[in-house]
Design goal:
The protein is an all-alpha fold and 226 residues long. The protein contains 10 helices and no strands. Helix content is 81%, strand content 0%. Helix 2 packs antiparallel against helix 3, helix 5 runs parallel beside helix 7 and helix 7 runs antiparallel to helix 8.
């Protein structure tokens, strides 16, 4: 009986040896690849966490500098963040914060510089859209109407489309293009949610141009019935 079991065990061992001789090398490389991938992923996660932690410290520095109105510290902290932690969300939000501070204090070149940085480096399309809208506003303040339009030229995500149309209407008004302004404001109003807090302001703009939003609503209802 014991001899019979020994033979079975020997056969199993021989089968395992044969299997290993045939596939062992390939399995070893697969295992190594898996371990290396896991190691790389773990290292990336650790690096990301470290980057985020360091960026958060500098973000707080920018916040304090804005509160204490220290433009030199804001500039230095933002330059450090943008150079070392360009991919961190903290850096992109800090750059928007700094741009707002500079715009409010009439440092338009610094404001534009930080907004352009966000536009070119942010991975979040919402932050990119926000930077483009603010860049357009800066150009309008400088009465650079063509440049203001240029920042709005590329399509916006659906959530930001009404705001871009409204901004185009504002530019039209400045250039005395009243019919174009009406069309842009109407499009902005029509694409906005009824609960949008900004919608009544567009209604005021339309009213100043002689457009009653009730007319737009009735026309939309007719189109729906047809």
């Amino acid at each position: 009986m014991a001899s019979h079991l020994d033979l079975e065990e020997q056969e199993q061992i021989d089968e395992l040896k044969h299997f290993w001789n045939k596939y062992g090398s390939a399995l070893t490389w697969v295992l190594i690849a898996i371990l290396l991938s896991y190691s790389a992923w773990s290292g990336w996660q650790f690096w990301q966490r470290k980057q985020a932690a360091q960026a958060s410290v500098l973000f707080e520095t920018v916040e304090r500098a804005v509160q204490s109105q220290d433009p030199t510290l804001i500039t230095r902290a933002l330059a450090d963040m943008q150079d070392k932690f360009a991919g961190a969300t903290y850096t992109q939000h800090a750059s928007l914060m700094g741009a707002r501070y500079f715009a409010e204090h009439q440092a338009m070149d610094a404001a534009e510089k930080n907004l352009v940085w966000v536009k070119e480096h942010a991975s979040d399309e919402g932050l990119v859209s926000l930077s483009r809208l603010r860049l357009s506003a800066l150009a309008m303040e400088a009465k650079k109407w063509d440049q203001a339009r240029e920042w709005l030229k590329k399509p916006f995500p659906k959530a930001f489309e009404p705001l871009s149309l409204d901004r185009l209407g504002d530019i039209d008004l400045q250039e005395k293009k009243l019919e174009d302004a009406k069309n842009h404001f109407q499009q902005a109003w029509s694409t906005m949610s009824e609960r949008d807090e900004y919608r009544p302001l567009i209604e005021v703009k339309l009213a100043s141009l002689g457009v009653d939003v009730r007319t737009i609503e009735s026309e939309k209802k007719k189109e729906t019935k047809e």
